[in-house]
Amino acid sequence: MDALYTAVATANGREGRAVSSDGRLDLALAMPPALGGDGAGTNPEQLFAAGYAACFASAMANVGRRAGLDTKDVSVTAEVSLGKDATGFGLAVVMRVELPDTLSGETGRRLVEETHRFCPYSKATQGNIEVELVIE
User: Fold this and answer.
1) What is the pLDDT of residues 92-128, one digit of tens each?
2) What's the CA gap between 69 and 101, in Å, rounded?
3) Pick from 100, 106, 99, 115: nearest CA to 62
4) Judging by DSSP bridges, how do beta strands 130-135 and 17-20 pair with one another?
5) Which burial class, exposed, middle or buried, applies to 80 when counting CB atoms under 10 A from its CB (0-12, 13-18, 19+)?
6) pLDDT, tens only, 56-70
7) Alpha-carbon distance 131 to 79, whole Å?
8) Burial tier of 23 (Cβ tally within 10 Å: 0-12, 13-18, 19+)
9) 55: which residues sit within 8 A by CB, 6+ positions away?
10) Running DSSP on this structure, what letter comes out for residue 42?
11) How many helices (DSSP H) and strands (DSSP E) are in the chain?
12) CA angle 74, 27, 84 (to 5 degrees)
């Protein structure tokens, strides 16, 4: 792969900090209350959800533009779950894509599925974690 951009961040665990190399991201990290923490900071699942939702929405704009579809009123919500699996812990994602009426039905379904094939985050998760697509 020919890298166009490389993000760099350093973290020291779930009860520490995450800082990007340019300093624009500087967050306290904390375990969520559901996992026994105080929730006084963000957590890796929230960061992954935000990144995946943003990437998927941008990918949909790209796919939609190539297909001549207006995606400006699309909203994407990523729900990232952490749970136990056979080897320890694993992730699962539900991508909730809210489409305007103009993209309902088969057109919207095809757009979401093509976006899932195009999105870099979706490609990275393919075969690694379960990703459920929900069109609303």
Assistant:
1) 999 999 999 999 999 999 999 999 999 999 999 999 9
2) 12
3) 115
4) unpaired
5) buried
6) 999 999 999 999 999
7) 10
8) exposed
9) 119, 120, 121
10) B
11) 3, 6
12) 75
Integer angstrom CA distances of residue 47 from 1, 50, 116: 24, 5, 19
Structure tokens at 14: 């779930």
Both tokens of 96, joined, read 């909730």
Write down the pTM of the prediction: 0.94
Query: For residue 126, what are its two tokens?
Result: 């393919």
Strand boundaries in 1-136, DSSP class E? 9-11, 17-20, 26-28, 75-85, 88-98, 130-135
**Amino acid at position 89, single letter:** F
SS3 36: coil
